[in-house]
């Protein structure tokens, strides 16, 4: 049988060591790769075992199901893609995949991202010090808000969404006490405010579309919405299979899924490259070669990105080694027998926390 340990081991180690390598190593040495504990108000199996984690992911929706802790449902709402399961999840995911594919095929997609990057790089001129992680967060947020809602960094709605989104993020990882003044209660309120802002943007966009069909040109409200009609929202508005709440949730899911992950990955890339002068030199060479074949102000296109083989390898390796998403949650739909060496285990608690652990870390 699996050994059971108090949840405090995770809390203690995370406050002492951060959530990184040391904590993983401590847990692995002290408690083994798979152990039972109690987390998020339910009995939990924590697995740092690659074989078991692979097995769990391979049996998605058969033996295991995505299941984030209940308090997260309270903040995200039940139609969030991160919370929905089964057919609803499949339907939302299919819509999301086709929306992303459509968005990426638009010629403006890469240009918009490059313009935001150049603007941030320009703001570094003359500065003695740059806090890269903060800059990466700014970049990621601006890219997502531009791609999803068509808003530029200067628009007041962008600042409002950012403020609410940061409050929302703080509450996601706090004690789920819905009492006024707690981070959790503030997050629930912030989520409602973001919903209202997004609904107002959707309404405005619908009015704009109606005006244009009445003869006001294709996108008469171009300045106000900051879009040429190539953002996610514009495509989303045409999807009839989604309810209004699902459309709003899509926007929130994109922010939630993309903001922290992408900015942490960028910060890790810089960190790893800083430790590897040879890789940095090769990366610069690849970029300069591509740049030298383009005109002075010519923006990068997909063909240029396809030539960046080394860059792609650097990103893939940083993703692999950097462990951006440290763990994911699943629940077991039935008792599962799992053999680990000579030890046969039965995983019966509902909650499973799969901890991503790389073999070459130890
Ligand atoms: C370095 C970048 C990223 C990493 C490492 C990452 C990682 C992940 C992982 C591991 C999951 C699965 C969670 C689970 O199964 O429980 C996930 C799901 C998801 N991610 Fe990302 N992600 C990244 C970027 C993004 C971006 C840019 C967006 C959107 C703008 C996004 C949106 C989502 C959404 C909506 C889901 C839920 C999908 C579903 O349930 O089917 N992610 N991501």
UniProtKB/TrEMBL annotation:
<keyword id="KW-0479">Metal-binding</keyword>
<dbReference type="GO" id="GO:0016132">
    <property type="term" value="P:brassinosteroid biosynthetic process"/>
</dbReference>
<feature type="region of interest" description="Disordered">
    <location>
        <begin position="205"/>
        <end position="226"/>
    </location>
</feature>
<dbReference type="Pfam" id="PF00067">
    <property type="entry name" value="p450"/>
</dbReference>
<keyword id="KW-0408">Iron</keyword>
<protein>
    <recommendedName>
        <fullName>Cytochrome P450</fullName>
    </recommendedName>
</protein>
<dbReference type="GO" id="GO:0004497">
    <property type="term" value="F:monooxygenase activity"/>
</dbReference>
<dbReference type="GO" id="GO:0016125">
    <property type="term" value="P:sterol metabolic process"/>
</dbReference>
<dbReference type="InterPro" id="IPR036396">
    <property type="entry name" value="Cyt_P450_sf"/>
</dbReference>
<dbReference type="GO" id="GO:0010268">
    <property type="term" value="P:brassinosteroid homeostasis"/>
</dbReference>
<dbReference type="InterPro" id="IPR001128">
    <property type="entry name" value="Cyt_P450"/>
</dbReference>
<dbReference type="GO" id="GO:0016705">
    <property type="term" value="F:oxidoreductase activity, acting on paired donors, with incorporation or reduction of molecular oxygen"/>
</dbReference>
<dbReference type="GO" id="GO:0005506">
    <property type="term" value="F:iron ion binding"/>
</dbReference>
<dbReference type="GO" id="GO:0020037">
    <property type="term" value="F:heme binding"/>
</dbReference>
